[in-house]
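for the writeup, i need someone to sanity check this before i put it in the appendix. the sequnce is what the collaborator sent (i think, or maybe the updated version? ugh). structure was predicted straight from it, no edits. if anything looks off just tell me and ill rerun, i have time this weekend
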Amino acid sequence: MTHEHSHTDEHDHDHSHNAEHTHEHVHMSPQEYATALRAAKDEYMREDPASPLGEQERATFTGLKYYPYDSALAMELTLDREVPSEPVHMGTSTGDSREYARVGKIHFEVHGETAEATLYGEPDNLFLLVRDATSGKATYGAGRYLEPDMVGPDTVFVDLNLLYNPYCAYNEQFSCPLPPVENWLHVPIEAGEQTYKSSEGQN
């Protein structure tokens, strides 16, 4: 499932750059999987007509920017299911609203600092979206996304190195849900994708 779509086609939910997110990565280390996923995303952004980049921008695209992989931020965490039953209404980058169910919360540490975040969606299709202390600085200001995996009845695998920018970071025509206040984190998550700069703005 993709969590962003074209502002001009509100029902197109099948063009996510995360379509390659499968459980094949169980045969790789988390770092190997992240490396493969980043390479696949760069190829998609550069080559695929469904890329959120325009044709001219694809022609000069040189790759996305990421933090170095940090194995301490690939974590198996207990899913705390004590969350409100009512859905969350999230605003989007284009001013509309979307509704998501809460699945549970995760509690974790980022280099000694404690944090918690809520997961949304369904147990077999988890969605994490966060703003953190890097947002608007080294990372996209509206926040970043991640699809964690359930690896046990109450255990979730969360690799913050896989945090990625929503399509609206590359193209304002896309409508992307914005992290609700409960997922505005005070810690800096220096992992995953950094701010996108078009080829014209790169050094």
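Confidence is low (pLDDT under 50) at residues 6-24. Residues 92 and 178 are 5 Å apart (CA to CA).
thx in advance!!
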